[in-house]
Amino acid sequence: MSPIMEEILSDSNSILTSDEPLSPTLQPQQRLKARPTTQLSFDAYSSSSSGSSIRSFNTTSNKVDTGADFLLGLISKSNSATSSERSKISPFHNVKSGKRPLIKLTKEASSEEEEIDQQDTCRDSDVPLDHNGDDSIISRNDISVISDDKEYSGYRRKYGHEADPLLIYKDPQSITWSRHRKHFFILSSAGKPIYTRYGEETRISSYMGVIQAIVSFFADADDTIRSLGPLYLVAVSRTNESEMQLRDQLNYLYNQIVSVLTSTQLTKIFEQRVNFDLRRLLGGTEPFLDNLASTMGDDPGFMFSSIQCVRMNKDLRDKVGSIMQSIKPQDLLYAMLITNNKLITLLRPKKHSLHPADLHLVFNMVNGSSTFRSVESWTPICLPKFNNKGFLHAYVCYITSNVCLLFISPDKDKFFECSEAKNLLKEELSDCNALQEIEEASQNEGYSIADIGVPGLRHFIYKSRTHVQYTSPTLVAPYSDPRKRQKPLKVHYYVSPNETILGWLTSSFELYAAFGPLISKSALTSSSHTLLRWIKKEEESLFIVSSPVF
């Protein structure tokens, strides 16, 4: 191994194996009829000089308020409470005590028509509260309705008659802006807006002020908020995702920023100028943050800290890995083929794996921009779990319409060598017909429940802790409907009127499966063992069991 490779691998703070994943426990939702409510949660990370803790807010209300109304109401109600009342709702709990800070505020129902069936609401952060199951926020068929709305009339007077009616859903001044089920905000410790999931950063200054007020609210009581460098990261959600899930999503957003700047540069910038506008350095990277924010709520890989691989014959995967190993450039750290957020094969140094969190950032980079599909690209990237203090350099090129090749190197001058290696790879894969087989595998949507032949089984997710990978069939009815897909699961064994849920965790795997509601325990146990035998039989095609190393 060359000296430059030894230096990179010895100096990096690489996490070679994944952290022990926390098994998510999602409580079943209940239909609320007596008093209609909507669950809102607010999680915040921010910088602090006096320690680390996390604060979460949950509130129940009968109608959807704008974010500012909710947050300002939370502060004013807490400050105006009597001593006895404040003791019930006080958020000032030291995290070391193990007590979860919780604030609950309840409003009277305005009418029976505001009743919300929480089992039928969709968890996707891109979907407004009154969404009916489509993928878009609003269809163009609804433009005529919006155009006649008083709110849009005011919006049109302010921004001109040619303004797009759909932009009203991204305007923070619009009440419909608050209908999104999840918002992300990122700002500096000086209150400078850096990113918002919806709307323009320059038009949410009032919300940034509210967030700073909340941070000051804790600081005045000698309480602290968990620090992620000089940034505040905030999630405002009514998706019923757990605190752990929201925390992980904020971590991913922070790591996405680090992948562009490195943590060293990020810290140095704000040490020199506290009020620096970070958007000047992040210009053009908003699509990557947007894509990540949209993907995290739907991809199980983020929750399970694992990746999904393309189902492929083991001999074909081994052949592709062998060819990649023969043509790899010198001083290469990693080489991989990916498609549609799935891994085809990975070439890596011996005893040095790539952390799933870093792989998710690589996938997000490739899928977040259409530019990579048309040209060969050479871009710096920081992989926070490998080394958050320095840049690596990634060569990105699509070798077919769906399959993307990546070479990751510590040497910034390897572009032309990587380009030559790409040409050799395409030539050798074409000669043995492997390129066409890879393309066909990438176009395959995967396997279905019918391929397994387990009676009563509707859907499952299986995670191999050994390989840090998961496998799952394509979604079929009723889970092909996004609204039905969001029904919560409970770990272990749970029976509802709609399905029977099994969660099975061992030291080597995790299994989450949904069966029909009428299946017996004995039949469920038998079917689960049948499923595990099928997964074991197909293990080499479902997972990358042995990556080629050098």
Automatic annotation (TrEMBL):
Residues 1-59, 107-133 are annotated as: Disordered. Residues 24-40 have a biased composition (Polar residues). Residues 331-423 form the FUZ/MON1/HPS1 second Longin domain. It is found in: Endosome, Multivesicular body membrane; Prevacuolar compartment membrane; Vacuole membrane. GO terms for biological process: autophagy; protein targeting to vacuole; vesicle-mediated transport. Residues 485-539 form the FUZ/MON1/HPS1 third Longin domain. It is a peripheral membrane protein. Its main location: membrane. Residues 41-56 have a biased composition (Low complexity). The keyword Protein transport applies. Residues 182-292 form the FUZ/MON1/HPS1 first Longin domain. Residues 120-133 have a biased composition (Basic and acidic residues). One of its GO terms (cellular component) is fungal-type vacuole membrane. InterPro entries: FUZ/MON1/HPS1_longin_1 (IPR043972), FUZ/MON1/HPS1_longin_2 (IPR043971), FUZ/MON1/HPS1_longin_3 (IPR043970), Mon1 (IPR004353). Pfam families: Fuz_longin_1 (PF19036), Fuz_longin_2 (PF19037), Fuz_longin_3 (PF19038). Belongs to the MON1/SAND family. Required for multiple vacuole delivery pathways including the cytoplasm to vacuole transport (Cvt), autophagy, pexophagy and endocytosis. This is Vacuolar fusion protein MON1. It comes from Dentiscutata erythropus.
